[in-house]
């Protein structure tokens, strides 16, 4: 028992040391002190508005108290044990205890306030009057395992952590034992429900919207990692298997949805996209904590640290489909790109809870952002045209409807991708739940480029439908080549460009294989943060940004519209000219509402929306007996290997046939050879349950 008491003291010391970590800005502390009024309130905080859309400005009071407490207890601080500072902290704490501000959003009361108050009392200890400590306990106690927010999700582990800190403060060993067990068991798969999915994406709610980088990273993963470090080396230490599972989640889930594992990926943001942000590398603390407890995948973790510290450059190449979340990611050392979709299995977008994100109706409609540095779209959102989102096909309505109708269930089953870890193809049978417009959309990703196809585009309303190639911050002059003309620089403005062959901007080249008219806008756009949120504290200041928009106009009520373009990231304009003049490496084999397929040298990727035939090359024919997505590698007139998936998630078997006699010795694959016709039928046992939609790869 004495040993456990000593461990409790050790863990508490570690928590307090973490709260004291980092430098104290004396100027900031001085400014905070000057804002404390005679009654203990802060001059710059509006205390009377507790509505959801106000954003709980009162939280800044308890946040300031934690900052002041850190300055008081940090030996390096010029305010260390300063009597005036102690008096001000006591005064401001009493103001909060006397008022006990309760916000309309449960999160304010069960997480925000309890977390800051428990940090305050851990830092201050007995320096605060006992009556204030006693008054804090019911407020901190709103963070408990019976609270409404403690459901399985990113919030549950955070609430458990707040409770654990308070139990440490009160030296409640029995209670601490119980809550640490809860935290220790939070790292687990919860397929189909709230929590970590089998593909290492994260669902915070039952709508199955991607929350990997918000709740799944900033809360769920980091809270577990924080506590694993606090209890390391004690009898409370978490099982290494759990810590290693967290490592897998970071490396195969979280870091693959960050640009190079370093910068925020705008494609996975939900309502938070309507809040101004800062562009900077993610920190290294969560990785350093992990490395104290495990050597598992150590080199990969250390590489992320070096990348985030700017000590190395990206080197990793991968393609990954998060089939539980319908999000596809491709990274190369010189670019990062994603496709975001939704189906009948998942909702399209997060509800704009508490105000932000009221213009995000179409952000999962096949969004394809492309980033070389990571800041290409940084804070573009106030000036953004929300009906021309990069990669999407959208009916151009006079206005978007309100934020209360953003979240919709998908209408189609055929949404998915195939990948082999390096390359992949994406297929999206799209019907807009907002306006009924339709399209068959596909993307084909190869080593250093990709192809985007659309077919079967139709709409029933008297409004045009457009497909946006990109809408991005204008970073350099735009160059174009039209048929029969030389390359020219495009003056700023709005342009309808006939027979556009290629466009170049910001080290990215776009080639248009068909004679089409492409619309280009490269000019200054204006807007306000308050235009894209209902939060009351949003800035109403008009801001301006230079923006590039490139799109196809399919016209009003198209019946079978289509598009095709090829994307070549991280190249020079001269390299783009050379690729165009030599002939692109990509051959579009089909672009119909039944089949979309591209060949790149010895590789073929195809999206079959229904059974059908595809000629791969001379005397080599593929007969798909089911809908599916397939990727094949060819060698000397035969298929050498293939990857396949079932986007509908309904098939137990997927079948196709090839010319030639093949043999395979792989589990889950049967080959039936017909020597008379010299063909082979392939029968693949498809993944089930939590793995339905996952790709399978085979070598022949």
From TrEMBL:
<dbReference type="Pfam" id="PF02884">
    <property type="entry name" value="Lyase_8_C"/>
</dbReference>
<feature type="domain" description="Polysaccharide lyase family 8 central">
    <location>
        <begin position="320"/>
        <end position="572"/>
    </location>
</feature>
<dbReference type="GO" id="GO:0005576">
    <property type="term" value="C:extracellular region"/>
</dbReference>
<protein>
    <submittedName>
        <fullName>Chloramphenicol resistance protein</fullName>
    </submittedName>
</protein>
<comment type="subunit">
    <text>Monomer.</text>
</comment>
<dbReference type="InterPro" id="IPR008929">
    <property type="entry name" value="Chondroitin_lyas"/>
</dbReference>
<dbReference type="Pfam" id="PF02278">
    <property type="entry name" value="Lyase_8"/>
</dbReference>
<dbReference type="GO" id="GO:0005975">
    <property type="term" value="P:carbohydrate metabolic process"/>
</dbReference>
<dbReference type="InterPro" id="IPR011071">
    <property type="entry name" value="Lyase_8-like_C"/>
</dbReference>
<dbReference type="InterPro" id="IPR003159">
    <property type="entry name" value="Lyase_8_central_dom"/>
</dbReference>
<dbReference type="GO" id="GO:0030246">
    <property type="term" value="F:carbohydrate binding"/>
</dbReference>
<keyword id="KW-0732">Signal</keyword>
<dbReference type="InterPro" id="IPR012970">
    <property type="entry name" value="Lyase_8_alpha_N"/>
</dbReference>
<feature type="domain" description="Polysaccharide lyase family 8 C-terminal">
    <location>
        <begin position="587"/>
        <end position="654"/>
    </location>
</feature>
<dbReference type="InterPro" id="IPR011013">
    <property type="entry name" value="Gal_mutarotase_sf_dom"/>
</dbReference>
<dbReference type="GO" id="GO:0016837">
    <property type="term" value="F:carbon-oxygen lyase activity, acting on polysaccharides"/>
</dbReference>
<keyword id="KW-0106">Calcium</keyword>
<keyword id="KW-0456">Lyase</keyword>
<dbReference type="InterPro" id="IPR004103">
    <property type="entry name" value="Lyase_8_C"/>
</dbReference>
<dbReference type="Pfam" id="PF08124">
    <property type="entry name" value="Lyase_8_N"/>
</dbReference>
<comment type="similarity">
    <text>Belongs to the polysaccharide lyase 8 family.</text>
</comment>
<feature type="domain" description="Polysaccharide lyase 8 N-terminal alpha-helical">
    <location>
        <begin position="29"/>
        <end position="295"/>
    </location>
</feature>
<dbReference type="InterPro" id="IPR038970">
    <property type="entry name" value="Lyase_8"/>
</dbReference>
<dbReference type="InterPro" id="IPR014718">
    <property type="entry name" value="GH-type_carb-bd"/>
</dbReference>
């Amino acid at each position: 028992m004495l040993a456990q008491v000593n461990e409790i003291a050790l863990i508490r010391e570690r928590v307090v040391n973490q709260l004291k970590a980092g430098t104290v800005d004396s100027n900031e502390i001085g400014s905070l002190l000057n804002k404390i009024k005679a009654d203990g309130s802060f001059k710059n905080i509006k205390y009377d508005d507790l509505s959801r859309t106000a954003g709980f400005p009162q939280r800044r009071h308890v946040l300031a108290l934690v900052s002041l407490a850190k300055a008081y207890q940090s030996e390096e601080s010029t305010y260390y044990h300063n009597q005036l500072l102690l008096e001000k902290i006591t005064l401001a704490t009493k103001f909060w205890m006397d008022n006990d501000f309760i916000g309309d959003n449960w999160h304010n009361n069960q997480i925000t306030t309890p977390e800051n108050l428990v940090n305050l009392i851990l830092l201050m200890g007995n320096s605060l009057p006992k009556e204030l400590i006693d008054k804090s306990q019911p407020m901190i106690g709103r963070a408990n395992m019976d609270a409404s927010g403690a459901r399985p999700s990113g919030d549950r582990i955070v609430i458990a952590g707040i409770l654990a800190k308070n139990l440490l403060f009160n030296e409640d060993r029995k209670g601490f034992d119980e809550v640490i067990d809860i935290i220790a068991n939070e790292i687990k798969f919860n397929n189909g429900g709230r929590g970590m999915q089998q593909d290492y994406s994260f669902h915070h709610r039952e709508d199955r919207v991607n929350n990997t980088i918000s709740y799944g990273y900033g809360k769920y993963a980091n809270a577990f990692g924080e506590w694993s470090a606090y209890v390391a080396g004690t009898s409370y230490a978490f099982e290494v298997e759990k810590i290693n599972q967290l490592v897998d989640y970071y490396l195969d889930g979280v870091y693959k949805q960050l640009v190079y594992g370093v910068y925020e990926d705008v494609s996975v943001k939900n309502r938070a996209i309507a809040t101004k942000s800062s562009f900077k590398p993610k920190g290294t603390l969560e990785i350093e904590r992990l490395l104290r407890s495990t050597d598992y995948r150590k080199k990969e973790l250390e590489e992320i640290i070096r990348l985030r510290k700017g000590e190395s450059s990206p080197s990793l190449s991968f393609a990954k489909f998060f089939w539980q979340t319908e999000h596809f990611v491709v990274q190369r050392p010189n670019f990062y790109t994603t496709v975001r979709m939704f189906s009948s299995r998942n909702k399209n977008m997060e509800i704009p809870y508490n105000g932000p994100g009221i213009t995000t109706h179409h952000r999962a409609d096949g969004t394809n952002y492309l980033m070389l540095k990571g800041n290409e779209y940084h804070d573009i959102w106030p000036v953004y045209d929300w009906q021309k989102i990069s990669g999407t096909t959208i009916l151009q309505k006079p206005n978007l409807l309100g934020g209360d109708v953003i979240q919709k269930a998908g209408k189609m089953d055929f949404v998915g991708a195939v990948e082999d870890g390096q390359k992949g193809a994406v297929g999206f049978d799209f019907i807009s739940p907002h306006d009924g417009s339709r399209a068959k959309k596909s993307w084909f990703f190869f080593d250093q480029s990709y192809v985007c196809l659309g077919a079967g585009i139709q709409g029933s309303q008297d409004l045009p439908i457009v497909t946006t190639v990109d809408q991005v911050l204008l970073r350099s002059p735009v160059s174009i080549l039209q048929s029969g003309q030389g390359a020219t620089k495009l003056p700023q403005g709005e342009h309808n460009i006939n027979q556009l062959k290629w466009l170049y901007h910001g080290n990215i080249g776009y080639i248009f294989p068909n004679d089409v008219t492409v619309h280009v806008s490269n000019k200054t756009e204006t807007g306000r943060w308050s235009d894209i949120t209902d939060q009351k504290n949003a800035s109403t200041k008009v801001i301006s940004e230079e923006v590039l928009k490139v799109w196809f106009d399919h016209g009003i009520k198209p019946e079978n519209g289509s598009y095709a373009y090829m994307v070549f990231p991280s190249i020079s304009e001269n390299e783009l000219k050379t690729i165009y003049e030599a002939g692109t490496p990509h051959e579009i084999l089909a672009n119909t509402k039944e089949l979309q397929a591209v060949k790149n040298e010895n590789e073929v990727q195809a999206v079959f929306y229904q059974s059908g035939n595809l000629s791969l090359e001379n005397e080599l024919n593929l007969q798909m007996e089911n809908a599916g997505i397939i990727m094949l590698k060819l060698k000397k007139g035969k298929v050498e290997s293939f990857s396949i998936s079932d986007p509908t998630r309904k098939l137990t078997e997927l079948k196709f046939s090839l010319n030639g006699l093949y043999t395979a010795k792989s589990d889950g694959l049967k080959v039936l050879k017909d020597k008379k016709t010299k063909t082979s039928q392939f029968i693949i046992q498809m993944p089930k349950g939590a793995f339905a939609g996952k790709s399978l790869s085979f070598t022949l």
